[in-house]
Design brief:
The protein contains nine helices and eight strands. It has 257 residues and is of the alpha/beta class.
Length: 257
Amino acid sequence: MDLKSIPAPEIDDRRTEELRTCLAAVHERIDRAVEQAGRTERPELIVVTKFFPAEDVLRLLRLGVRDVGENRDQEAAAKAEQVARLVTAHEAASPAVRLELPRWHFVGQLQSKKARSVARYASTVHSVDRTSLLRSLRTAADPASPLECLIQVDLREEIPEDSRGGAAPSEVPALAEGIESAEGLRLAGVMAVAPLGEPAAPAFARLAELSALMRVDHPQADMISAGMSNDLEDAVAHGATHLRIGRDVLGNRPPPR
């Protein structure tokens, strides 16, 4: 393929300016939340690009975004390849402007059979919630480049039997030990989505407590992935280290293609 023939969006096009404005607004919200919480460390922003094109990821990279999230492997695997081609084409056309490939975060429910595919492009998997997935990731991971794993926790006060992702809090210690002992995996912390129909703040407080308990035995597992467009302030107030923001940066999601 002729890399120079791959079209890349102009740095100053209208979409780039939309993203620049939205990113600035989100960063302002984060700064205010950090100040209100009396925190000294600022959470990292992961921009979730589900259903948005690879060209938007390139725009985000040129606006300084380093961490990009996806939650469907079929889309994410193809997009990671497209972004790599776009970055190469961009550098061929503008050698003075160097871009790094994004750090890809897989943030959605993950089928065990997709573990090998995700391990090829993701630096971090936020949704480890069962031993069968842990085993698949261990088989797929490259010990020379360990895959960061976060345990997704179901924060609902009463957990029914359904298909929603997340381990029960009582299951977290065993999963943590399993990840810690697996060659090729690195225990990074915990992740959660605020429960539907429940206030976000008390749920994120429970997540912070689980994180603190985990760090007694695994002090390096200090990531807390929590907070989206609707509840980032509550997440920051309860110690989130990574925020997963999609809509408020990219706009309303287009229909899936």
